[in-house]
Amino acid sequence: MKPKLFDRLLIQVRRQIRSCLNCQPADEGKPYWAYDQEICIDELFDRCDVPDLMRAQMVRYLKCPTCQKYFEQYDSVGIEIEQLQRQDDQNQEAA
Ligand SMILES: [Zn+2]
User: Fold this and answer.
1) pLDDT (tens digit, 9 = 90+) per residue, 41-62?
2) Separation of 92 CA from ligand 1 center, angstroms?
3) Measured in angstroms, how far is the CA atom of residue 88 from the centroid of ligand 1?
4) How far apart are CA 41 and CA 28, in angstroms?
5) What is the number of domains present in the chain?
């Protein structure tokens, strides 16, 4: 395992996580995704090309930036909604 790759991917994944379900508003006691786009952490790993071997380890470094809750690999997290809709523009913004 290459530590540098791990760190780089960790930063990339962390940057996208904005919230967890606990941080969303609740309707009659049931929280729902109001502000952020719901995504499974494992799917977020797919998007960031995180190798399978690193996933179990990496998830231990991930927590909700709002409530500090730690995640499991198949938990849902909230990411910025725009990121999904504007993927084509991202190359220009990154430059
Ligand atoms: Zn949270």
Assistant:
1) 999 999 999 999 999 999 999 9
2) 31
3) 29
4) 26
5) 1
CA–centroid distance, residue 9 to ligand 1 (Å)? 21
Torsion region of 87: left, alpha or beta (phi above 0 gives left; psi -120 to 50 gives alpha) = alpha
The total of other beta-carbon atoms located within 10 Å of residue 59's CB is: 20
- Residue pair 19/35 in contact by the 8 Å Cβ criterion: yes
| Domain containing residue 78 | 5-94
Q: What ranges make up the beta strands (E) of the chain? A: 17-20, 26-27, 30-31, 37-40, 76-79
Which residue type occupies 17? I
Burial of 25 (0-12, 13-18, 19+ CB in 10 A): exposed
For the stretch 58-87, pLDDT in tens is 999 999 999 999 999 999 999 998 655 555
